[in-house]
Structures are given as C-alpha cells and as structure tokens.
C-alpha cells in the first residue's frame, strides 16, 4: 500500500469523533518514536472496535505524516467455530488497504489444554502473539501495531499489582524477547469510550470473540468495572493514573534492583531541604 491509499469520506460526526483520537494517537507516536521513515507497519486487525479504529488512525497518519511508511493489515483466523471468514477480507478490500489473512488453529489447542472453567486468555494470547510475530518476520514488517488503549494499559497494571505482585503495565513500545520484533500501541493514550463512540458511528463490521466473551468472572472485567467506577466518581482519574505510569521515582519504591538503598551517600547541599515538604505543618 502507498501513501495514496483511499480513505472513506468522513461525515461530520465521524470526523468530529476521530479528531481527538488522532490527536492523542499522534502524541503517543511522537512521544515514543513509534514510527520511522521507511517502516513497514503490520496492523493486527481482529475484527474488534479497537483494531478497526487503529487501522483508520494509521491510514490517516500515513497520509498526513511528513515521512513515508507502509501499512499492511493482517488478521489471524484462529479456527473458532462459526468465524465469519468473509467479513474482514471484504472490508479490507473495500478500504483498499494491503492485507493478508493467516490461518492457524489455536482455538483447538486452547480448548484442549485449558481445563473447563479456567480462563483461556493467557494461552490464547501467547499462541496468537507467536503466530503474528512469525508472520511479521516473513513479510519484513519493522513494526507490529496493536490496538490496546488507555484502559487496557491501566487494567494490566492493576491485574499485575493485585494478582502478580508486580508494578508492570503494557508499554507503548516494546521489543520482543528474541529481539526480532518491535510492537507499538498508538492508541495508548486514547480512552476506550472515545473508540467505542467512533466505532459505532463508523458502523464497523464487528466480529465478537466467542472464546473470550463467553468466560464468566474474568478478572480483567472486574478491574475494568473498578476503573470505570473511579472515573465516574472522579472524572480525570484515569488520565492521572496513566501519567503516573510515566512518572516513576525508584527511590520512593522498594525495588533494590532499581535503586541502591544500601549505599546511600550524604545528601548534597541542594538536597538538604528536599524532604521538608513531607513533614507535617507545625501549628
């Protein structure tokens, strides 16, 4: 695909809804140097609202950016029974974007390996990631774009905090463990509600994930409800938490691998008053 790939003509509603998404996505791309001149970006399109929106964002950025980069949309058909195999090829062809459908029956593997009643997300995501990483190498993609948004990042942070005893989230940009792939998340700053409103206005042909959606009591869903309640009670809290993930002070945590607590030296003169703001006011 070239920079001249046609985009659907937006109406006033979709244009207004896309504008803040583009602004936040462009900021994230710039902040984390996600896309460089000459990149071949493989966009993972699952058939959900997030990946459809991501594809629209990258096609708009491709047309507006001062640098040239390629976009290829890729869908992984995981062999789920009843998966509508015609929907994405028809949509992507109509959009005029270069695309490929890869098929790997991870569904059967997950159903065989995961006991009934246990959540399938962890194994499913590992298998899906492996298939997409391998395909990115085959087509020479330099970046793999995923549709995770602000709430995905915050939910992952709290899941790791509550259940994994780790301070860890989803980074906006990541090199894979084997060093062969770079993953980017251009929607990292974008609220899920903005994506949902845009997807509804665009009337994307949504393909539900029956494997994930049919699982009761998913902890990610529980955390999602918690975050949504906080945002309703305290508007702006989600953005505050997202900013906190980018403002880390290792000396005020407990990780001895990040900060040398054992060898603290004498403070310099500039640090003498550094802790006074933490003292109670004297009355």
Task: Report on this structure.
This protein is α/β, with parallel strands linked by helices and 283 residues long. It is 44% helix and 10% strand. The protein contains ten helices and six strands. It has helices at residues 12-31, 49-64, 87-95, 106-113, 121-139, 150-163, 192-202, 210-213, 219-233, 237-245, and strands at residues 40-44, 70-77, 99-103, 143-145, 173-175, 182-184. It has a six-stranded mixed β-sheet with strand order 3-2-1-4-6-5, with helices on both faces. β1 (40-44), α2 (49-64) and β2 (70-77) form a beta-alpha-beta unit.
Helix count? 10
Seen as an oligomer or otherwise, the chain set is single chain
How far is it from the N-terminal to the C-terminal residue, by CA?
69 Å
Instruction: Indicate the structural class.
Output: alpha/beta
User: Percentage of helical residues?
Assistant: 40-55%
What Rg, in angstroms, do the CA atoms define? 22 Å
Beta-strand percentage range: 5-15%
Strands, total number:
6
| Low-confidence parts | 1-6
Please tell me what the overall shape is.
Answer: globular
How do the SSEs run, as a string of H and E? Answer: HEHEHEHHEHEEHHHH
Give the rounded overall mean pLDDT: 86
